[in-house]
Amino acid sequence: MTEYGGLRPSSVNKFTKQEKDRILAACPGIIAESRPDNAPHIDLIWGSYFSMNYGWAGDAERRFASSSGGVLTALGCHLLETKKVSLILHVGPDPDMPMRSRWVMSRTPEEVQRNAGSRYGPVAPLAGLENALQHEKPFAIIAKPCDLGAVHCLSKVDDRVDRFCVARLTLVCGGQSRLGTSIELLNEFGILESELTLFRYRGFGNPGRIRMETRDGRAFETTYAEFWKEESRWDFETRCKFCPDALGEASDIAAADVWPGANPTEEDAGFNGVICRTQAGKDLLDEAVVGDDLILGASITPRQFDFFQPHQVYKKHALLARFRGLAQAKMPMIKTIGLRLDKLAEALDAHRLQEEKSATIQRARAGRFGEPLPS
Prior knowledge:
It is globular, with a radius of gyration of 20 Å. An 8-stranded mixed beta sheet has the order 6-5-7-8-12-13-4-14. The N and C termini lie close together (11 Å). The protein is built from 15 helices and 15 strands. By secondary structure, the protein is an alpha/beta fold.
């Protein structure tokens, strides 16, 4: 963990050449690629898909406790209950430092539920991928879109990935926050991180209240809207500002928030937008619905998703101009395959394209995208 509140790899100079080659072939800071699966539909913004629906967990308690509709939790539990997988590689709160996240391998539905929930802060689920692969048994992964992009690219140089990682589930991602966002909130309430026994970001309602509990029995709460209302809190990783696939195009299934305009105005029972991208995802959804572990509601169109996720649409259109700004500032770019950035940029007029490019150049030259290398 750096002083800026981000996770970084350590001992990078100790990798062998073979290890470096494998990392460079899959690192989402270098390459991002869609994972088409002969889906019947394709949208310029949202990519290829089999279906788009509202969805929520069939179990009412699971739905209530999860961060929105509980779709990813319900699918993880279903896979274990039906013995389709031996474990779920995902993330959960660190029991000793509950404001922070760590990778976990859940082997029972109860473990999946205990580790459920949105985690606003840095986490590296793929730090556990080799452990999961070494079991040589079917497993599923629930992770960020960039993580699943890395899994897809890794599958080209490691045949174990496609043999054993049989379900790849993700969220539509607004960006990974640095830890400082949560530390600021603790400071506002006068709480030390070492005092925490609980830090719940969402859930127990949709979106639910952010709740903190301490070892001496105190409890503090704030709302989702209060937490995010100040843009100064939005301290995302630089990679996220240039993410070419926050929509999970390398997943089997992606789950999204479906608040109008991306802002919840009240608590509700909990819903997700469910994007099924592959045949494997379709089979999983069908089986989970038949088993009453998941409920699918009305269809959603891509243009409705635009309304639910307008910030994603804005970024998609702007990305090519931002990449050109990085190139002019002599900074590395992400190679993209199958993500349609050229076509997306055509939707913008020349003035806005130039604005995006110029702003990127200015930020790069001001040092906004850099940080000291980890020791």
